[in-house]
Amino acid sequence: MIELTEAIALVEATAAPLPPRRQRLLDAVGRRLAAGVVTDCDSPPWDRAMMDGFAVRNADFAAVPGGAAPTAVELDVVVDLAAGDVTQLVIRDGLCARIMTGAPLPPGAEAVVPIECALDGTAGVHAGGRVRLSDPRFRSGQHVARQGVAFRRGQEVLAAGTVLRAAEIGLAAEAGATHVVAEPQVRVAILQTGSELVDCDREPAFGQTRNSNGPMLAAAVSLLGGEPIPLGIAADKPEAIRAAVAQGLAADVLLLSGGVSAGDLDLVPEILRQCGVEKVFHKVRLKPGKPVWFGRLDRDGGAAGTLVFGLPGNPASSLVCFELFARPAIQILGGRSRDDWHLPRATAVLSAAAKAAPDRPVYLPCRLGQMDGGIFATPLPWTGSSDLLGLAEAQGLIALPAGGGRFEPGAEVEIVLRW
Ligand code: AMP
Ligand code: MG
Questions:
Q1: Which residues contact 55 (CB under 8 A, 6 or more apart)?
Q2: 191 C-alpha vs ligand 1 centroid, how far in Å?
Q3: Which of 2, 130, 142, 326 has its CA 20 to 30 A from that of 160?
Q4: Which stretches does DSSP call E strand in 134-273?
Q5: E strand spans, 171-288
Q6: What is the helix (H) or strand (E) element at residue 99, kind and residue range?
Q7: Per-residue pLDDT tens for 136-183?
Q8: Is the CB of 313 under 6 A from ligand 1?
Q9: What is the pLDDT of residue 419?
Q10: How confident is the model at residue 303 (pLDDT cuts 50, 70, 90)?
């Protein structure tokens, strides 16, 4: 049995960032680019109308030197252009095109006069008709987004290191990047052991337990941006567990739950050993979560490998161990910065008494509030390591050091701010 701080340090020392991977653009949401994105097009790709109206020549609206701009201009409409329409027709002085937002300006046209500027009921005039326009605020080139004003073909529009949020994903899509080289999505295989377990869509018979850890751990992985690979349930039989473990060892991380304590059917540590996974630690001074197991399988002479976590079967223990040990491993593998490795911690004032365990640090679900600029923490009723209700209601965990003492209301305690 080792101390919690030592166990966390061992996880941090064992995990190393995976090399960046080329991936589909949408698989890289929230991840950091490892290589810049270079655009294959100008933006806009051509001179684009930015208003519904009439595409005109500047000269027809230019102010007479020393005088006022023409009050009303009559032009022949020679073509109708909706977004997506193109034409070879050249707009010469005295001519115009009826044009909608998003259409390319026809050759010769230089500006758009909005439809609201049409006089005498000519706003609805189409090709073949004549429109009367008056635009007292006319500026040369108005309401046109010029080709390449935003960016030019061949330009790097996203630099290495950029995090791909919604705007960056949109920009990459506009730039023609169907794939990007980015931090890898960490592949996490998830296996539950236990002959008593049934899938959650089943009505459990007497003695059976629904597999809540499977969906819970898959969700925890997804929330970190990882790719959960559910391997389902293996009964407490060495052959069943061994076959599933062999499959899971192809992933970057293998999470098992159940079968790591000291019972007759706690077969997981021995099977992992037989599969060549080297133990880093087994059992941590921690409540809930004492039986947790951690090891690594090396591949390619240590250049690659799989990190393996044997989490306790009890759901609340399983999740606390995921957050304390598997979370930093997944974040490190995914290339996240140190600030993102762990759930944030803070100091809070207890609003009700809480009891420490004599032999190991204890984590208790709590609700959190704000008072006088500080945080207060209220322990939730919680029946222990199999109680997910208390954990689901929690906004944080109170971390009490070993020693068995009673912490009275008003005492300062450390809290882990939860999800
Ligand atoms: P174990 O760690 O295998 O000794 O299991 C401890 C407790 O957790 C037992 O009551 C199991 O039935 C329960 N348990 C194990 N795996 C799961 C699971 N996947 N979902 C829900 N409960 C589980
Ligand atoms: Mg079991």
A1: 49, 81, 91, 96, 97, 99, 105, 106, 109, 111, 112
A2: 12
A3: 326
A4: 144-145, 156-158, 179-182, 187-193, 197-198, 209-210, 227-234, 253-257
A5: 179-182, 187-193, 197-198, 209-210, 227-234, 253-257, 278-282, 284-285
A6: strand 95-99
A7: 999 999 999 999 999 999 999 999 999 999 999 999 999 999 999 999
A8: yes
A9: 57
A10: confident
Q: What is the pLDDT of residue 215?
A: 98
Contact indicator for 92, 71 with CB cutoff of 8 Å = no
The bound ligand whose nearest atom lies closest to the alpha carbon of 211 is: 1
CA of 259 to the centre of ligand 2 (A): 4
pTM recorded for the entire structure: 0.82
Query: Does ligand 1 have an atom closer than 6 angstroms to the CB of 213?
Result: yes
**Which are the contacts of 178, defined by CB distance < 8 A and separation ≥ 6?**
24, 25
Q: Ligand 2: distance of its center to the CA of 357 in Å?
A: 25
Percent of residues in the chain assigned helix, strand, coil, to nearest 5 = 20, 30, 45
Using DSSP's 3-state secondary structure scheme, residue 327 falls into helix
Residue 241 main-chain phi, psi, to 5 deg: -70, -40
CA atoms within 13 A on the CB side of 344: 7
